[in-house]
Design brief:
Elements (H helix, E strand, L loop, with lengths): L1 H13 L7 H33 L3 H22 L5 H30 L40 E3 L4 H11 L16 H10 L5 E4 L4 H9 L4 E16 L6 E2 L1 H9 L16 E2 L7 H9 L10 E5 L5 E5 L8 E6 H8 L4 E3 L1 E2 L6 H5 L6 E9 L5 H10 L2 H10 L2 E2 L2
Parallel strand pairs: 1-2, 4-10, 5-8
Antiparallel strand pairs: 2-11, 3-8, 3-9, 3-11, 3-12, 6-7
Helix pairs in contact: 1-2, 2-3, 3-4, 5-13
């Protein structure tokens, strides 16, 4: 409609033109106005698509593209007055209505999805820093027989094991500021910790068994890793707390994550499609999951697009959202104690619920050792001293007191 009014303005100025028929002037002005409007439209849509593309807003990119092609037809129709003004106005109002309805529907769906909390990732590790006031890192009941003051081993590890190695530091290291982001004792998650050890930026990492890719990377760098088991933990599956399903067999779990079981009603649940979330490649829980699924083809994970710094858009496994129909996995202590969210519940597997007793007696079927991993050619003598202490009664008591099971 703006282009139509713009045309009328031009036409009124051209009405006094001499030496040329008004109809010819009228046609020329309409052509110029149409071309100008299309240029402005094209530039505007181009920048909007770039803007929404950077924000990974696929819906709005498609909406802009659809509107662009509709406007390509509507602008000439308006300028050349193919229909009566009332009809043209109705077409513009119809387009505007479609746009508003589309945006309202999209944002309603977005609000619905955002109403479900993202779980299994939002843990404040600051609360476990070793010497922070009111730290959640546990204390020894007695003074440690090992005290280190110099050549402190550089520690790193998985998020789920930061509480236990923070407790080791609290018992053995001198008091100080050990930020989990930048210090001698950090937490770069499982992939980052393996990279740090292999590249010589960490002396001990606290993680689960390395993945195939992590072993290959160590081999490429001519690094031999030494794995020392220091505790045991349960690999668990969890669902929304309102999900009526409380138990799944290993066969059913493999069926869900292979894509053979797609609806909760097939496992005695409600009639709803299962949203089976996975974790990112080389994370500790993803490595444990692939070991669990060994011999069974895993369906493709739900993906989300992210921008990696200022570089290209990449894909990764979508973060777990606690939909009523969702299922995810991690480790018991991390989900139950670190996240501690009452809106999710752990599932029994093959009729056995994961707790410290079923982990200890071996009745829960999905139990894994976790490790303190070092380089085989480590030269810092305090590294081995710390490992020996971790395996001692004092170290193992901290493993248990933190909430894990001690190594047998």
């Amino acid at each position: 409609m703006l282009s139509h009014y713009f045309f009328l303005h031009l036409y009124s100025k051209a009405s006094n033109t001499n030496g040329m028929k008004k109809s010819t002037v009228y046609t020329i002005i309409r052509i110029i106005a149409t071309i100008a409007a299309i240029i402005v439209l094209s530039c505007s849509c181009f920048f909007l698509i770039i803007f929404f593309g950077l924000g990974q807003e696929d819906f709005y990119m498609c909406l802009v593209a659809a509107c662009y092609f509709l406007l390509l037809a509507l602008i000439p129709v308006s300028i050349f007055r193919v229909f009566r003004f009332r009809t043209t106005r109705r077409l513009w109002l119809l387009l505007l209505g479609i746009i508003i309805l589309s945006i309202a529907t999209k944002e309603s769906i977005r609000a619905y999805h955002n109403s479900f909390e993202r779980i299994d990732y939002d843990v404040n590790l600051i609360t476990y820093e070793p010497f922070r006031e009111n730290t959640r890192a546990v204390d020894l009941d007695t003074v440690s027989v090992l005290k280190l003051d110099t050549l402190l081993p550089r520690l790193d590890g998985a998020t789920s094991f930061y509480p236990v190695y923070a407790a080791f530091v609290r018992a053995v290291y001198p008091p100080g500021d050990y930020s989990y982001i930048y210090s001698t004792v950090v937490c770069n998650t499982t992939p980052g910790a393996y990279n740090a050890l292999i590249e010589g930026n960490a002396d001990i990492i606290f993680v689960l068994h390395p993945s195939k890719q992590q072993l290959e990377y160590a081999q490429e760098c001519n690094v031999e890793m030494k794995l020392t088991p220091i505790g045991r933990e349960a690999f668990v599956f969890f669902v929304n707390s309102k999900n009526p399903v409380n138990n799944l067999s290993t066969t059913q779990l493999k069926g869900i994550y292979s894509g053979k079981i797609e609806n909760w009603r097939d496992v005695d649940g409600k009639n709803s499609t299962i949203k089976a979330f996975q974790r990112n490649e080389n994370s500790g829980s993803q490595t444990a999951f692939l070991q669990f699924m060994e011999g069974t083809e895993v369906m493709e994970a739900q993906q989300t697009h992210i921008i990696h710094g200022m570089g290209p858009i990449i894909q990764r496994a979508a973060d777990y959202k606690n939909y009523p129909s969702a299922i995810g996995y991690s480790f018991r202590f991390y989900v139950d104690k670190m996240v501690g969210n009452g809106d999710i519940k752990l599932l029994s597997v093959d009729g056995i619920y994961p707790d410290k007793q079923t982990i200890e007696d071996g009745s829960y079927p999905l139990v894994a050792d976790f490790y303190a991993i070092t380089r085989a050619n480590e030269t810092n003598p305090h590294v081995q001293q710390l490992l020996d202490w971790i395996l001692s009664e004092q170290g193992q008591s901290l493993v248990e007191k933190t909430g894990y099971n001690r190594i047998e």
